[in-house]
Amino acid sequence: MAENDGETIVPDEQCNLTASTPMKSSGLEQVESPKERKTSMVECDDEGNPSSGTPDESPKQLTPHSIPPRRRRSPRRPEVSASRLPLKVLNQIFQYLPLKDLRSAMLTCHSWNNALSMEDSDIWQYLLGKKLPEAAVSDPFLLAELGSAKKKLRAWYFAWNTSDISRNNYIRTNGFTVHRQPVAQSTDGVRGKRGISKGVHAFDITWDGPLGTVAVVGIATKHAALHCVGYVALLGSDDQSWGWNLVDNVLMHNGAQLGVYPKMNNPPKYEVGDKIRLIIDCDTHVAYFERNSEFLGIAFNHIPPLRLYPAVCAVYGNTEVTMVYVGSPQMG
Amino acid sequence: MSAEAVAAAPIAEEATPVVYYSIESNDRVVLKISEQAIKQSATLSNSITNLGYSAENAESMVPIPIEKVNGKTLKLVVEWCEHHKADPVPEAYPSGNTVLPVWDRKFVDIEHDALTDLVNASNFLEVMTLLTYCCKFIAGLAKGMSPEEMRVFFCIPTDEEDEKAERFGKEKTEASATSADTTA
Fold this sequence. Notes:
The complex is a heterodimer of chains A (about 325) and B (about 180). With about 325 residues, chain A is an alpha+beta fold. Chain A has helices spanning about 1-30, 35-50, 55-70, 85-95, 100-105, 110-115, 120-130, 135-140, 150-160; strands spanning about 160-165, 170, 175-180, 185-190, 200-205, 215-220, 225-230, 240-245, 250-255, 255-260, 275-280, 285-290, 295-300, 310-315, 320-325.
């Protein structure tokens, strides 16, 4: 009996000391007091478990501490925090959130960021199935270079813009390919859905049909014209756009020809179906192209800090151009 | 006539009784759940099948222990299962077009701690429809929030708060060790 009394005394003293220390600390820093109480709760639980007498007392001690943290909106009971929900549950919650809220969720805490950083997780697969047209999902070549569901979804948000396009162009059902209808004496362009103003971005552009007399690939601001009469290298004809005419390999901006590109004697002609990668480096204000992964040199420099959209303009009837956003290019 | 009457009586008797299984939470709360309602939980259904529980021996068997769920939360899950015991059990998790019924919306509109416990419990017990409703409700709350608002609303600590809590925990441990040495 004496030994039992001895054992019960020690936990009580420790509990008292635990209770007294937060009071001292709270005098020093008020900000920490809620966390101190949280910690003291945990310690009481640990100390209370071995002793059979203490369980009756520890719940009473816990009750007063549980109220203040809630009022102060401080973190409490980390074992049941929403940040520690299982991955399967998080995916279930996130599938009901729109993309903007998913971005907020990614910035909330590490575990949520980890859940959403898995680019082929259920949430991205689900959104991919919801947003992308069936024609794009079932095409084995269209998005083949994009390795994850998240990247494919991102490409969709950068694809050709169905509401920012010449009336003689239309976007095919896959959402990534523009088709020019056979209309005489007309130049017709299209812009991407999203412009860029920061960072380095790459767009894969493929001319799937004949070039005709004018076939320009380049960048444009929101205000560049997308249609004009006649067969004109419209992209690059004013200060709102920059273009590379694949027919004669001439660079154009503000109506002036900046020379042939690539800058060499007799640069090779574009072959229909070749993949052109347009790279816009907003931080150094330059744009350049790669063809079949070969760097061709700087095309445009001193680009003003505007929001720029990938764009093409075409004149040939029934020609088609595909554009897929690939994000930041891999620097060699 | 008497033979027919005798034949009818056993049928009526068989239809009358409802079989209840006992389940016990991790804090020793024992709850009863009907045979029909328990189908809503894949985990409990499998436990009953695999552990040899049946209508005949249900009353005499010891309660099924549920180690990961506390009594308050388990009571909510049982209440939900009883309310939905006539509903079909989905084979897979419902898609994103789930509609949250009125009764269920009121049911899951509870304190954040209790809701988080309920989510974890329905996930562990594989009550798929309840989990879906909880997730949809939580997503509805989170819609339109900034990251800071999400942290406050879901009681998620920031990295700085985590570090302070860890540092404070270490100081408390050292203080306890010092007091223990003094006592000895």
